[in-house]
Design a protein that fits this description.
Strand content: under 5%
Helix content: 40-55%
Structural class: mainly alpha
Number of domains: 3
Largest sheet: 3 strands, mixed
Number of strands: 3
Order of helices and strands: HHHHHHHHHHHHHHHEEEHHHHHHH
Shape: elongated
């Protein structure tokens, strides 16, 4: 443990406390000689971001080889290197914060078996000592990111206070520069399935730094971590300050994010009614719903946002499919893939995201369907074209192919099918199709009806005046 501590300090001492070259753009705003192409162009960065690679940092035992290498031929260089992780640990080990690295390494060695149970069996080869070092470096990095990205930073302004400190300010500003200037990318990096460490490791580090680094911040680690993703879509609805109940065991950050976005108590996998294949009655496309007197309504049902509900109106004659508003960003496909992959590998968490993606893939089978949902406000504030939206959910099918179907998803499909098989719905649909088969026909029928009513009123008025002429 002393050897690991010495190694970390040596790596941290080798880090230059100067602003990296790609941050000099802020010093060149008024400099006419500043080139327009920087060392790290945003276009190249966005390409790696879209491919699913981490940009800011990699954490966990699956990525320890990549984090220790400065460059790689298969991926872009990371902003936070192994040496910078060591610098963060050394910074938190200062007397002002009091992190005892030797005590934490001893605790990590004691919990080695518990940590390995959180990963797939034999999925990585690493000695207990090396795993303890990885947990120390990556745990401090993730907790440091939580300290900077949490929403309560607007209230206590603790990072700004550290930045003004005469002794700690320069070092703190340098260590926090990569995260502060790449907040969105950092948040997405922390939600990658292969970029996770056990949540109880973060809870342990938070307990060690609660009275120093997190001084005056009276929030649990669950609430602090969850608030880091408040601006990541899909967002939370209902009470934004909700935290998991005490009996709910959080596995990692992605698990916590998943819990906050799925409807509670729905789409659980029942081992007695598991179905591997699609049900007989499935959801049709969005334009079919419109032709079948079923309208769409934008909503955010309950504490979870990814919930699609079917309801009946007008004595069961009309149907309403309530779909939450969807905001698509550059990271949306990557985030959905990680959430679905997490559900497929850990069925105990339910299939809320998988069910949502299956429903959206059924509804969006063509560009006309996407156009209809966009007009209804369900596809809100997205720059993607209708074809790109359709391809997004069509491509997600690779993640949940041959998946299980939850009883709630089966119930939704059966309710939709039963409604459109009902006698009242079919009778109204027949009348509408016979009398108003097309929009143009509907327009002229309504126009003819108005003209007929006006003619009838004029005729009655003329007859009345014939028998009751106006006396001058």
């Amino acid at each position: 443990m002393e050897k690991v501590k010495l190694k970390i300090n040596q790596e941290a001492d080798g880090v230059s406390l100067s602003i990296p070259p790609y941050f000099r753009r802020f010093d060149r705003i008024n400099n006419e000689e500043c080139p327009s192409i920087f060392m790290w162009p945003r276009r190249q960065q966005q390409q790696w971001f879209d491919r699913g690679n981490a940009i800011v940092a990699t954490v966990g035992p699956y990525n320890h080889h990549q984090s220790e290498s400065s460059t790689s031929s298969e991926s872009a260089p990371l902003l936070i290197t192994y040496a910078k992780k060591c610098a963060i640990v050394k910074f938190l080990s200062r007397r002002e914060f009091g992190l005892d690295t030797v005590a934490f390494l001893r605790w990590a060695l004691t919990n080695n078996a518990r940590v390995r149970l959180c990963y797939e069996r034999d999925s990585f080869t690493m000695s207990p000592e090396k795993l303890a070092e990885v947990l120390l470096l990556d745990g401090c990095l993730v907790l440091f990111a939580v300290f900077l990205l949490r929403s309560s930073v607007r209230e206590d302004r603790r990072p700004a206070e550290l930045g003004r400190d005469t002794e700690l300010g320069a070092e703190f500003l340098y260590l926090s520069a990569d995260i502060s200037l790449h907040m969105k990318q950092t948040r997405v990096d922390l939600l990658l399935l292969g970029n996770q460490i056990p949540f109880f490791v973060l809870a342990k580090l938070h307990s060690l730094l609660a009275q120093t680094l997190f001084s005056g911040i009276n929030h649990s680690i669950q609430k602090l971590a969850l608030s880091c993703f408040d601006d990541i879509r899909p967002g939370r609805s209902g009470s934004g300050s909700a935290v998991p109940p005490p009996r709910f065991q959080v596995h990692h950050l992605l698990h916590l994010f998943h819990w906050s976005r799925v409807p509670p108590g729905k789409h659980a996998v029942d081992t007695s009614t598991i179905l591997l294949h699609e049900p007989e009655s499935n959801l049709p496309c969005a334009t079919w719903f419109e032709d079948s007197l079923t309208s769409f309504s934008k909503h955010a049902a309950g504490p979870g946002t990814l919930d699609i509900v079917f309801q009946k109106r007008m004595l069961g004659v009309r149907g309403v499919l309530r779909v939450p508003a969807l905001h698509i960003h550059g990271y949306s496909e990557l985030l959905f893939r990680n959430l679905v992959a997490f559900e497929q590998r850990h069925l105990r968490c339910g299939l809320g995201v998988t069910a949502y993606c299956i429903c959206m893939a059924r509804l969006l089978q063509g560009e006309a369907d996407a156009k209809l949902l966009r007009m209804c406000g369900i596809l809100a504030h997205t720059r993607e074209t209708d074809k790109e939206v359709v391809d997004l959910f069509r491509g997600l099918a690779d993640e949940y192919r041959d998946t299980f179907y939850s009883s709630d998803l089966l119930g939704l499909c059966e309710d939709v099918a039963a409604h459109h098989r009902s006698a009242a719905s079919r009778a109204v649909k027949w009348v509408v199709l016979q009398c108003f088969p097309r929009q143009t026909v509907t327009f002229f029928v309504i126009l003819g009806a108005l003209i007929s009513i006006a003619t009838l009123v004029n005729t009655v008025y003329s007859v009345y005046r014939f028998y009751h002429p106006v006396k001058h």
